[in-house]
Queue: 3 jobs
Job 1
Amino acid sequence: MCLGQNSAHHAVHYLNSQLRSLYENSVECVKHAGSGLKPLERVRYDFALAEFHVGARQQTKFALKDDMMFSAVFGKPRLEFICNHEAILYLKIKEGHFNSEIAKADSSAFVPNRSRHVKLHDMEVAFRVSFDVQGIRGYATKIGNGFHVIQLMVLNFQGARLVSKVNAGDREGIQFYMRKYLDYLYHTSHHILFSLPDFDDDRLDMIIDYSLESHINRTLDTEIHEVFGVSVEEINRSLSSQWLKAIMDVADGADRNSICLAEYSSTWTTIGKRSDIQFHIKFGAPRVRVLCKCEAVLYFRIEELLVSEGHDFTVTPKHTYSDWEIAVVVDLTEKVGGSFKHVEIDMTTLRFCEHFSKFHGFDLTLDFATMIKTTVVKFITEYYAVVLETTHFHEIHTIDISRPPMTPEPGPWGRRGVMQGEIIMGTDMGHYDFIQVVSEQSIIEHFKVLWHLSRDSTAEYSKVLGKWSYSEDFKASFGALKIRYLSDEKVIVWIQLDEGTLKPLKGSTHFNFSDWSIAFEVKLKMVDQAELSKSWFTRFKESFAWKHHGSEEHRTFKHLVLDFTTSEFVYDLSKFEGLYLANRSAVENVRGAVHYLKDYYFRELIQYGHHVLQSVPIWKRGSNPPPTGLTDVTFQIYSKTSCTRHSHVSQHYDIVLILLGMTGFRPLPSGHLEYSTEWFTKHRGTVTHGTVCLSSKVFLEKRLLILLSRVNATTTIVPFFPGGESSGFVTLFDDHEGSEWDLALTTSARHPRKWTHGCNWKLESNHQWRHTDKWSYKHKGSIVDEHNGVYTIECQAKNYLRLPTTINHGSLDIVMGGKIDINLGFKGASTRWASEAVAEWSVTLSMVSPRGGSGLTIEVKGNTKPKFETSQVHGDASIEKLIDLKALHKLVVVDLDDLVTELRQLFGGVWEHCFPGMQAYSLSNPVFNSNGDILFELRPYVPPSQVIAPRPSHASSSRSTSSALVDGTSAGDRPVGPKKTKSILRRIGEGTAYAGQSIGDVIKDAFEGNPDDGVKETSSVHISTTPGSRSSTEIITRATSGGSVTETTKRVITTTTHTADHTPAIVPFTSTAQSATPNGGGKTTPKAEVKAGGKANGGTGVTLVDPVKQF
């Protein structure tokens, strides 16, 4: 053997020689036994490589060949090797046939019909088979040289795959019978062959690398198109993408490690014996051809090889070579780490493969040229491989295995948006008064709304989001912007280019593109009002934020914006569909697109204020802000783990944007808010916008408990001596003959001094209020001895307050109650009596999340006017004679009016402390966490007039008895008579649909019954609705009146918002010029443009609007 060299060629010859010898032995046995089928079972294996027959189940072993299901006479078999794991087994059929009725082959009743035979003649069938080389270690004194190993090659016939390009009609039959033959060969042990013997005493390992002897047979289907679940095409595209990025880094002056995939100089190496001869390589895009699931050929394309004398590559090179391709065989591995799966090249296995390499323009007769070739190959295999591994370019493809699914899965909030578990128990505000968490989904949805509106807008500020051009050099139509939060207060912004054309920075030929997604890393920034453009400020005056705060001199705004001036192109996260990345001209096309977007398009977005994400009203110093009014605000990106442009947080942990605020002009705490738990979870099929949290100090302690302490004051009875008071008390003992005591009862709230001390709740197991006043009066000297004695009065108040940390169907129920106990008594020498009056009360204050998104409603249920019940404990004194009970009933009232008013103003309607762009949020699903902070879920604000109530379930036959209509009229109030249904466009435009009806229900109703105004209409409708996004409805109406036909198309721009309680709220893009009240009131005058014969989009709402004025 050629020791020290690859002995694969010799091994293949040795293996095929064994097959040839075994085959010749079978042929000789066949000749010896004579023609015809062989009757002896014990010798049939001797013929295996020469002949094989398959009979029907009902046939005997003495049947004729022509009666067989399959019969073949074989030629000499042979092996060709693909790699070190798989080979091709060629089996030549000299003559024979197979029966095409293979489905009946296993039936015992089936008799083969010779007319269904398919003749086989001089056909070579190839199977791809895997193999293992296993050694048998032994020792024999007669062999000598110590221990020896007999190498066996074991072919996996049972897993063989047909790779011959056989006629489609014959393929199934050939594959069926040949698999039986391979199984037969396996049982005859012909799948085991001996590898080259190695019994000598030189102690040198024999090198057998079949991969370097690999052959490409174009007539066989041997190509592997997938490895580790990734297509080879995708891997090569990933390699081309990395190469293209390296090309761009060259122009940007990046370091040698960043550009090594594109260029490399020998001056950076120690390769080569002559220091005066140096080379510079310009690489093309690398590619792989997979040999098997474990090995591949990696091709390094050398576009240009410049050989110079000395280290100065600026001078004309001495020799130039081009279009070389150096092939190396490598092992492929799969590595899973964290959130990613990598397909990697094991660079330690890299071997140069001569016969797959190409050296154009190379003259073997020149010693100098031979030295260059040898040096470059050595550089690739010994030095460059290490460089690529060091710079992680050996990771040829990366799969993000932790990306969340497109449809969000439900989390601990539950299917109805209920906060539970860790969110309630684990959220920690640190030392901040205010937190608002904004999800990525909310920002994406915000841009999606703007993009939908831009599609039909004529206003420049809106159109720029759908279409934009820069002179004749760049024109494109855009999709909606998308973002991903990163750590360090940054985001990735994707600019979606649906289609367009651009002029490269170098060259004059325009390039057409489509479906590009270009990523930029952009910093977030908090700016003052004065830093934004005047153009945007003009429109901002029409926003919800300005209408609630803009006219107040003591308030200003801070805006969270995308600082596009800091944008950095992120090639790794960009997508250039249809661009051939393995070409250097692609670089200029990519550079051109990035240039026009960064230098010109982003200026337009800033000019029109599309970079503004959130607007926060701030109370100025010297003002008197409400308890929840923010006096300072900052922001941060919040996540459990760090997230950069090269990574992202696992789907198990959301990365979110948090606005952090302070009230009362207290300074912002230093440092970041530490991670405690997630602040919200996703709901199936809905957009989760975020969470609001007010600290226990700001809301619970400074507002809620203080206002609720007034309930303690109004339900606590105390005795006192009335002075100049004329009302607000109840006198005692007025009707008692023996009264010597001028005393009265009042509440702590009415007492001239008691309320100044407060009636504050005390936190024990729950919040509690306990108060007792016990007075006694001893009287002597009365003429009537029965009047002498001790008079007593004892007043007790026992109140409780329960703040829930769970939500009942979107409602937070604050339960409070108490017991008022009044005891009167007298103890004299001869007389004794005692009477008692008791009143118990209980009320529930509920913060309810209504359907839609119009903010919380506040409800009070229970006994707010407690009644006293009396009992005579002993003696003959009746309490009715001691106290005026009617006056006492009027005295005690559970008064929550101030609290309800404040809660409605704070949490009902528009959420007034943060605004998304020109629109507004509302709150829902309130709950207290374990620290006493109150949390809410964010929703887009929807005026109450535009929220579609749920339609009552009823049979179609009783539709006329629908209990409630949008106009408030019940079906029973309507006059009885033939139904007169309004036209479809009028019903949608005027909002006269049934409460809770979808657009489909409205259309169905419009098609039924008699039309109004003597006009007959027929409509064709196309509807496309996506939860959490805008509906697209096309309504074309043909109206016939007086013999004339008019075709009209109207556009309804609406949205369907599936809220956290899974209630569809139809949200028209109404004009922001409406007068919205804190309770969500206000009336909108919808406007719509109607064009005959025009094309329009529609929606599932009931209001026609002008989409341009919305934003």
Job 2
Amino acid sequence: MPAVPEAVDTFELVFEFDYQDVPVILYRCSQTGLRLAVAQVQSPTVHGYFATQTEAFDDYGSPHTLEHLIFLGSERYPYKGVLDILANRCLAQGTNAWTDTDHTCYTVDTAGSEGFLNILPIYLDHVLFPTLTDSGFITEVHHVTGEGANAGVVYCEMQARENEADDMVDRAMKLAMYPGRCSYKSETGGRLKELRELTNEMVREYHKTYYRPDNLCVIVTGQVDCAALCKACAPTVESILKSDRIKSLPPLEKPFSSPVPKPSESARISIAFPAEDEESGAKCEFAWHGPAWDDMAEIAALQMWLVYLTQDSIAPLQKAFVEKDPALCGEVGFGMSEQTVYLFHISLSSINVKELSTRDVDEELSSILKDHVKDAGACIDMKRMTSLIEQKRRQSLSDVEESPHDFYSGEIIGSFLYASDFAPKAAGGSGTPGASLKARLDRPAQLSKLLEWKADQWARVCERWMLGASSSPRVTVIGTPSKACGKKLQSDDASRIEAQKKALGEKGCKEAAEAVKKAEEENETDTPEELEKSFQLPDVSKIRLIEVSTVKVDVGKGTIQSVYGEDAGRLKDMLQSASGASIPEMSMQFDHVTGAQFVECQVMLPVDGLSVEQLELLPLWCDVAFELPLAASDLGPAMDYESVVGALTDITVDKHCSVGFGGGRFGVGSAPNMLVVSMKVEKSRYTEAPLWIARMLADTMFDVERLKTAVKRILNDVPNSKRDGSGLMRLAMRALRFRDDSTYGAFNVFRIERLFSKSLSKPAGLQKAAQDLESIRTALLAASMFARVGGDVLSLGDGILKPWRSAPFVSASSEGRAPVVAPALMRELYAKDKVRPTKGKTLGCLLSSSAEESNYWTVDCDCFTDPRSPELAPLLVAIEYITALEGPFWRKIRGKGLSYSYSMNHFLELGIIRFSLSKATDPVGAFLQAVQIVSCLCMESDDQDEAEDTAGKNVPKEKNPGGEEKGDEGDDEDDEDDDDEEDDEDELGLDPSSLEAAQSGVLFQLIEPIDTIPGAMGQAFDNTIVQQPPDQLQWLLKEVQGTTADSVQAAMKSYILPLFDGSKGRMVSLMCPAQKRSKIQAELRKVKPAFNVVQLDVDTFVKTLSPAEGYAGLRALVAEGGKGKTAAKAKAKGGGKASGVERRIDPEDGIAYTFDEISAHYTGTYSKSGIRTYWEAQCSVAKGGKASKDNGEKRVDPEDGVAYTFDELAAFYKGKYQQHVLQAYWDSTCTAVRSRQPRSKAKAKSKAATRT
């Protein structure tokens, strides 16, 4: 980069220094106070962070709502979405922002600096001079809909958060920790009640107070020239100097300057949060006030003390609460909030509720802390403390390499907020410029000082901040799971909405709808075409990517092969020299980047040969892999588990054991047929990583007590899955696809719960599990292995292969290894009976939860799998075109407040294309909008009528207050319909400028994951795992730039349109609040072709998936319940003879059931007396009773509109549905034939015989 100038125009250099070879620079505008901070990270991407310090003393959410409104236009660019539209043309994927307790930060990331410098002045104009219109407030923040409900993008977002367990516990803690007036306890996102009361004028006043140039810092990380950056800000400086509003501002009163109040005494608070499982999943937080922000030495010491107390299985609090029998919880952690005065807490999660009720956690914690303070810290393990400090030092250096943008920007933002020496010439500034920032960046130096500490110094830290008279009183918050709490919250909200609707009346609801529509129209000011075209797409060829060179050892062929990269030849020569007479006995891959400071080693072992029973134990092994004792062997001495944990802390930066890359406790990752053991170490300690991986595999002793602890830890974590609505939705989708006898089935959380609680809860079961794990290990070590080394491989020297030439990497058998097994693609584990909806069919699940307040949707369609498909680049561009910020979905789905977020993705490995909604207030409305948008985009502009007809198939006509459908003439609302049609016209075909922006967005999407050394090496290995060519990225970058409007629209028609019009088979998984299930069911009828979903509450879903054939069981329910029945009802119908002959129609779905079937469905949701009352008062007696097979009566099957006798219907559906299901379908769904001649019996039989 060019030399750093002392001054550029009005910007003066404040400080400049290097940390880890990265120049860190700060400029300050002498006329406005605006600050520009730069960290010149070596990366192909440039990241911008525009931070303003914001303080709120209430829960109205002004900081958060303002964050949203900033993007709706500025005084110079008064067009909604112009910022994102232009950013999309700068090799970016739009813009983003976050709101924290003490600041709001606006972001944009670009590939290269050219696009960043182009968008910067426009972005700053939005931040400092936003339009803040009333119409924007209505749509983006909060409004009342025509149905009398509350909506808005911000409202939708916070509705999904307000009653989550973590948020509720955190809020209770902060209210107790900050008595009186203090902004640190405020909900800056906004509470729902306050959001309903917030006004746009309040937001305008908030902007006036805090959004000013002397309270704004522009932070840039990446390769950007300082002089060019300062010049790019010149238009902003000019606007500031001309602004009468800014000229009239009083001197800045530094936010967060008031003393931080503390509680006068310790407190213990208990709350309930919504959950489906009340036996486990409780939470506990212990909170204290900590050091002042500028007391860096004390902060570093306190952080290390908290690490010592909590980090691993031999930590004091882990031993007391997780390892001790009986275990209280599944996890112990800590957190520290960066503030003027730090707030820190220790958290216990996945707590067993029964155990919690019998223990005094406050007293237990105090006792542990006091034990560590007495006798000058005599019981503190100083060897372990030293190990932890060294590991933290390594991890800090690793952060610089692995996530440099986050690392530097995070510390710069903190210094901007709280360091008095960040810009001494600013109001209140003092000290040596940049000294605090430099010290905070150099964490290793701070940690090195702690290596000299003695035990008594650590004891004083504990006493001062957690026990002593000078520490703040401790606040303890205990949150317990409650199903009743969730039901009450949902019921109360439903009652509130009903009362609101009643108060508004029909007229008020209509006025509310008109206000929203008017606001939407006012927001639709298009960005001038000439402005868009003035932003030329940057030259991609100027962007320098991180070079990765790859070489493979192919044990099957007995060769070392250069795969890709400019250093591949040198790397191959080095490996051939190191191999000597023979190559290693296993296949290997080496990914090299010059200058990498850390090395990652991974070993994969195929699990294909394991039995189902053995696969079911893999979750246990993965969970406990690094905390088991080791037997003595040629690899090393015997070690107890505490020594193993300590040794691994001493050498590793990170370590993982999972099935597949990216797998976890209840899920598998890429290469799902592989057990993966991974370690990351400093380059100088490379040889130790293979040695320890070898010991983890070969010497591990499956100690029963360690297994017992892990089983309880895993079981305590299960309830967290039960209240994770989006996670349950994804699990249902996996169940519809994958085999029960695969690793996907073995890692099914509810199957794990059932197996572990039944078979592994007793000593005999654990003993057998230990023996079975020995057998599993023997089988895996006999199989072929695959190893990977990533780092600065050329610097590792000729000894690079030596650690891989001993057991277990070398076979002890004269017969050698088993044949090489390749990593499996995810789709290769699909079940033979995978749900495969036929053309025009949509099958899946509708889940409901009392712990969930938002809706989540996933809709899948099959798609191609070829990584070199000529349609891949056009499809990626098509997806970006539709989903981009300020693209069609953004404006019509998020912009209308129908859903907080949405996504569309193509998954090559799965062979699907997927549309998802997250935190949706009106998921059906959002989906129908998507249908309409995609239908229009797939039509040429001269096919307008056809487009409108196609879109209309999925959008039922609205009804006027009199109940009649709106026609083409005769009322005043036709003009509004015409306006809507004109809007649709605008969406017909593809806009050339938007197409270029979509290409730009995809280019950034491809470059961003490889903008760091670990990211670039990781993608090189990913190409191997998912069987893609090594130059896939380079090929795809060229292909994207070569896409055309025709190729993109063709991809839309072939792959995206079927996802929405149902012309191909679709799979769906939906999650909704229990209280709103009936409403969602009713609204789903608007979707055509129909969503045939089986309905399950969480309890039923858990029971369905928990058996060994749980996935297959759900697939069977989907097949049987495809006409809209709940799982409980479908099961009742197939479960043998009903105890009663009378059937009544459930108004929930219009189907007839016996009382036993109704009772089975609603048990757990309503009391027995409530079900009986419902049966007698609301369920009408089904007409016709049992169908007569002899009277020749015919009824119309709504599936095809043809009339059949019961015998003909039964003959067709034989083997698909059981008799009771058919009886109910005949009674309540098939309609009697009226005024029609029945078809001949022969034709009916023919149809029945040929249908599939």
Job 3
Amino acid sequence: PHHDISSIEDLAQLIHDCKNSNPSARVSVKLVSENGVGTIAAGVVKGKADHVLISGHDGGTGASRWTGIKSAGLPWELGLAETQQTLVANDLRGRTVLQTDGQLKTGRDLLVATLLGAEEWGLSTAPLMTMGCIMMRKCHKNTCPVGIATQDEELRAKFAGHEDDVVNFFFLLAEDLRGHMAAMGYTSVDELVGRSNLLIPDAEVLGSRDKLHGIDLSKILTPSASIRPGAAVRNVTVQDHGLELALDKTLVEVAKPAIERGEKVTYAGTVSNVNRTVGCMLSHEVTKKYAGAGLPDGTIDIKLEGSAGQSLGAFMCKGITIEVTGDANDYVGKGLSGGHIVVKPPESATFEAHESIVIGNVALYGATAGKAFFRGVAAERFCVRNSGARAVVEGVGDHGCEYMTGGYAVILGPTGRNFAAGMSGGIAYVYDPHGAFPNNCNRGEVDLYEIEDAEDSEIVLGLVGEHQARTGSTVAAEILADWSKAKSKFVKVYPRDYKKIMEAKKAKEANEREEAELKAQKIDDAFAKLKSMSSVADKELSSNIVVSRPTQLDSPSKVRGFVEYEREALGYRDANERLKDWKEVHRHDPADAIKPLLSTQSARCMDCGTPFCHQTNTGCPLGNKIPEWNELVHQGRWRDALDRLHETNNFPEFTGRVCPAPCEGSCTLGIIENPVTIKSIECTIVDRGFDEGWIVPKPPVKRTGKKVAVIGSGPAGLAAADQLNKAGHLVTVYERADRAGGLMMYGVPNMKADKMEIVQRRVDLLAAEGIVFVTDAHIGAEGHPGVHDIREESDAVVLACGATKPRDLPVDGRDLDGVHFAMEFLHANTKSLLDSNLSDGNYIDAEGKSVVVIGGGDTGTDCIGTSLRHGCKSVVNFELMTKPPDVRAPGNEWPQWPRIFRVDYGHEEATVRDGKDPRTYEVLTKEFIPKADGSGKIAGVKTVRVRWVKDEATGRMNFEEVEGSEKVWEADLVLLAMGFLGPEQTLVEKLGLDVDQRSNFKAEFGEFETSVPGVFAAGDCRRGQSLVVWAISEGRGAAAKVDAYLMGADATLGAFDASGAAEGKPLPAR
């Protein structure tokens, strides 16, 4: 607590003050790792620091700006090595404990720090993470969603951390360090401190990159013991703070009756400038017993004569009074905490007290309570950061009352310049008989007033009177002699915001007094009785009302939106209504009608410092800039939101409809609340873009002349084609079906994504931009274009043909009529719907049939929804796995995809129509039973119940059949929706492609090139069955690699990064 620490002497005084305030504590000084920190550390240790922390550039408060986090300081290794060597060279190392910090997380980190000279280590981030910190980086906003860095009671209640987790973390960390030490043959940390010679540079790492070749680590790794043989290389002794010689030792002995029994004591003695921090150690002893309450005023009365050293009365507590007849140095009353200080010249002084300096700079810095009276002038920065003390002085130097936040300061003489700079609280009263003060006052945050009301007059008169009584001030005596005249020459310095707060506080207190008086009068009239009865009824009624948080407001606030508003997605149309048609199940309300909803829902997005919603392994594989377009939607900037969305996602109208939203599963808010409605907002942004006419064809301005063939027109193929076309290449897309769109056209039913208004609209848009679509082209099949011909005609080929080989169920009766793969059922239905609105009969009809769907997931749900629209007699869905829990189970922690029980559109529709959820869990199909008439048609499904048990040897979960649980289910139609095994192998055979263990086309993620040069693979054919977002991500990534393959340094799509998005300057959005 100094205003400035501009020298080692200032720091040494602060260290001395802190040591006096608690002699048993260590005083630590934190230094940022930087060039030359060793020299600074040497001065700090000479200043008697017990402990020195070298802080690395990594880490720091989560509230810091990125520029500070990324650019301030150097790695702790550099600063620590320099500090260790410098301290040993000056024989100072043995007097202090050396610590380092900066993203230390493992036992190896601790070992390296020890070898470079640290005997202690500071860890914060890792322990915070074990308590539940999610690196929101909002520590300074009081909005920490996990209740760690906040004073908000509602948020603190959400803290779910356990101290045992932190303890376990440190046990594991210590065990890790012990393992490394044992491997090196050492048994104690002390043996390793400063042994930097045990660190050996990794030649392979240094030789891996050109920029590392010239690095010389020899100076950093110089053993500190070799610099000054015989000097200590670790802490072996304690600093001598000279406390035994302190005047307070005498004061504590004298004051024992007061401390032990509360008796009044008086001490009289002399003081000189070698007696620093007088009264502080005495206050420590009083506070140890009486805490913040201290003793009654005047219990310990100390009278000193002479010239007091620095920090007179620092941190002095209530009950202690120090009166100095003479003068005092800097920092008088630093942190004054209730004590009284009087400094006055001796009566024999021949100089004018009100014209002479009586105390030094920075008096009453950070004082919180107490009184101080100074007969004479204070030097600069009087009452800086005073936040509660009352002080009287007869003149001040420059920067008086700087940054003051509370208390009162009465100035009975002239002031220096820049008075009240940054003053945000408290009140100063300046006696200004000559009218000079306004020119010296910094009015940036304060206004000047005359003393008019009785309260101000009472405060000033009381303090001036006490000042005169305690110091014998002649200036105070003159003012008191003609108070009515002197009062008009006082200027009240009143901070503007502080004034508003105080006036509001007074108004509240007045209202409370008025209410108390009314209650005291006990008015017993009929009106009062009725009013009382009414208020009682109101209280009873309100106690029964559950206040729910709003989901939509006209003008929502974003600051605490995640706390104040509840989640509400756009949701589905009414189940009874949507069962009558094949239109999309999603609601599509007018933009004006849903504006309050989306504005409020986007306000729930917390603008995370570390957004997990677009992290590759947990959230959106596309790296969608979700917090950014949420903020734009909240501001009503829909066009900008669309542009931001298109930077990373080619087809938001696809993902906004059929994606299961892993972004919401990893939403940070999902830890404590329902997650943000990301999917609804995304879908609405792009739909509005089409409605407003913002999305129009934009063919590339320039063509490269390079030809690329894309085989497959699903999301991966379309994304690759779109990106490559933007780069100016000539792209041809081959699709084996009669319509382009792949999975989005025929794999997803119309009620999830309308084929003409959504899928075909996008295909038409791509065609208008120059992409050529060739349908009914089953590449490699007989009678269709050959893959070798396509290769010869193209400069590159992208395989995006999906994982279309379904998983079969080889049980008895599999070949019966009525057992179909789910995709046969869904494809035929959509094609017939598009061709003839189902009038041609070219589909598998479920009308009037008992339908059994084997397998869950989206495909199983689509089969249920389609069967219900056909008018099936009944539908049941078998799932082999156990029913998921309603909430995350242990081991399925955020930000993983939550494996919980969900009700999708098909399940809801079956429940509404049939009165129950169609799903049955832990069911194994044993046999398909034929009809007895010999027609070869299916009549039923035989199943058995299973239970899942853990194999103790392998840890794997295996199922075992439950004896006696066999059951036969009526079935006229069985749909197998058990997923896909990989791509068909025709192209593998034709091209000679390498495949992985799962028969997928082998191509490294991030590179996407197959074993055949110039042939790339993306999407499900490369990674296996996956999500639409992953398909689009891989299509974009493959396009970037194709562009680089074709254009080299002239490529425009940038490099593919691990998030699945292409780096570099984003292409203009449509």
